[in-house]
Amino acid sequence: FKLSKVELDNAGIAIGGEDRIIRLYKVKSATDFTTPFEMVCQLEGGHSEAVNCLDISPSKTLLVSSGNDS
Question: What is the pTM of this model?
Answer without folding.
Answer: 0.75
